[in-house]
TrEMBL record:
The chain crosses the membrane at residues 12-34, 83-104, 116-138, 150-170, 191-216, 250-271. This is Carbohydrate ABC transporter permease. InterPro entries: MetI-like, MetI-like_sf. Belongs to the binding-protein-dependent transport system permease family. It is found in: Cell membrane. It comes from Arthrobacter burdickii. Keywords: Cell membrane, Membrane, Transmembrane, Transmembrane helix, Transport. Pfam families: BPD_transp_1 (PF00528). SUPFAM superfamilies: MetI-like. Residues 79-271 form the ABC transmembrane type-1 domain. It is a multi-pass membrane protein.
Length: 286
């Protein structure tokens, strides 16, 4: 038998170039994250003097200082506040947006197209335009310095992006499933909970990922509505590190930033396989 012919070397060159390019691009994308982890191990004396990537005298004192708390408030309290806001945002967004999306995609009522177009139009409205009227409303209701201003909108389907995402997903589901359920005597409630929700799980998880990340990283909302430091989430806790002394504690600030990033990365890694399926459907025509 003849020995198999070896492929010419020039056929492997494009593949090698492609792999090297992907590795280089990945390194560029991950560099800020790796730098932040490395900088969290630097003592404060090296900030400004050590321009290198690696610390000369690595130490965990920054993390020890962070875990001791800020201004008499334990660090776990800030994590708990952020977790409460993040989980509340996920629950509210999933429940309200899925119900609104089902109404727009499966229920025929007068003015549905106009209302849907108006809802999509809110995506063009900057958040800063709504700050003053929303603050006045919550102040008159006596809800300032509570979590309600940060969570109420999540339970009222005010996030048009998530509603639109789920509408596009539901519109691609076969209507024959709804018709078969109606023949068996099911109403909209039974169809929604027993048929629609299980089939739009990728869209629900995609919305959950974005809702959690946006709530976890939100700085302006808590800054406006929260006055008590013990109610601050992590983004405001970072500000305390820079404001409590005349000189900013860069090491502790970066250390708590690394700790604040871990839940977001874990949440994303656990559910990222559903992300592509969910986002890919928002541009499809039902």
């Amino acid at each position: 038998m003849n020995a198999p012919r070896r492929r010419p070397l020039r056929r492997h060159i494009p593949t090698a170039i492609w792999i090297i390019g992907i590795v280089a691009l990945t390194a560029i994308v991950l560099y800020p994250l790796l730098w932040m982890v490395s900088a969290s191990l630097k003592p404060n004396s090296e900030f400004g003097s050590n321009q290198g990537f690696f610390p000369e005298n690595p130490t965990f004192d920054n993390f020890v200082k962070v875990m001791q708390g800020i201004a008499g408030i334990p660090t776990w309290k800030f994590f708990l506040n952020s977790l409460l806001l993040g989980v509340g945002a996920v629950i509210g967004t999933v429940i309200s947006s899925s119900m609104a999306a089902y109404a727009f995609s499966r229920i025929t009522f007068r003015g549905s197209k106009i209302l849907f177009a108006a809802m999509i139009g809110t995506l063009l409205l900057p958040f800063h335009v709504l700050i003053i009227p929303q603050y006045i409303i919550f102040r008159n209701l006596g809800l300032i310095d509570t979590f309600w201003p940060l969570l109420a909108g999540k339970f009222l389907a005010t996030e048009a992006f998530f509603v639109f995402l789920m509408v596009q997903f539901i519109r691609n589901l076969p209507r024959e499933l709804d018709e078969a359920a109606r023949i068996d005597g099911c109403g909209h409630g039974r169809i929604f909970f027993s048929i629609t929700l299980p089939l739009i799980k990728p869209a629900l998880i995609t919305s959950s990922i974005f809702a959690f990340i946006w709530s976890w990283n939100d700085f302006l909302g808590p800054l406006l509505y929260l006055n008590s430091p013990e109610k601050y989430p992590l983004p405001l806790a970072l500000r305390i590190f820079n404001d409590q002394t005349s000189t900013s504690d860069y090491g502790a600030t970066i250390a708590i930033s690394v700790l604040a990033l871990l839940p977001v990365m874990l949440f994303f890694i656990l559910f990222q396989r559903f992300l592509v399926d969910g986002v890919a459907t928002q541009g499809l025509k039902g």
